[in-house]
Amino acid sequence: MKILILLLTSVLILFANELQFEHNFDKALKKAKEQNKAVMMMYSAVWCPECNYMKEIVFKDKQVSTYIEKHFIVLSLDIQKDTLPKGFEYPGIPVFFFLDDNASEKDKIIGGSKANIFLEKLKSVK
Questions:
Q1: φ and ψ at 122, to 5 degrees?
Q2: Which pLDDT score, from 0 to 100, does residue 113 have?
Q3: Which CATH number fits domain 18-123: 3.40.50.720, 3.40.630.30, 3.30.1340.30, 3.40.30.10?
Q4: Could you tell me the strand order of the sheet in which 95-99 lies?
Q5: Domains in the chain: boundaries
Q6: Which tens digit of pLDDT belongs to each residue from 65-84?
Q7: H helix or E strand, kind and range, residue 70
């Protein structure tokens, strides 16, 4: 029984820093309005090493995930599956658009970076 409890606790700790991604633009905006948050829209691809680094390493950093959860609804769109909403342009991936709850772009971060650098960029988002 003790081993089972230890195993379950370990699994919970592993997934504690998992960000919850939205995959629908309208639902993300609605959620942002309800929670009085901005939307962080990530445009990426499964074949992109830098995109995967952001999702698998940077977004699992406790400080980064805590900050994001407090301030943003995260919308993840795939370049091969999803059409970027009109009015948004990207020079490359990953790109992070920061939107108010009316879908207006307020800021943008292009490219990935280490967790501490990305966190500083997040804190400077307008």
A1: -60, -40
A2: 96
A3: 3.40.30.10
A4: 21-22, 72-78, 38-44, 95-99, 105-110
A5: 18-123
A6: 999 999 999 999 999 999 89
A7: helix 62-71
50, 18, 66, 68: CA torsion to nearest 10: 50
pTM of the entire predicted model: 0.84
Q: Which tokens belong to 43?
A: 């445009």
Let me know: does 103 contact 29? Beta carbons within 8 Å: yes
Looking at residue 11, what is its pLDDT?
A: 38
* Model pLDDT for residues 30-47, shown as the tens digit of each residue: 999 999 999 999 999 999
SS3 (DSSP) at 107: strand
Q: Would you mind telling me the total number of residues written for the chain in this entry?
A: 126
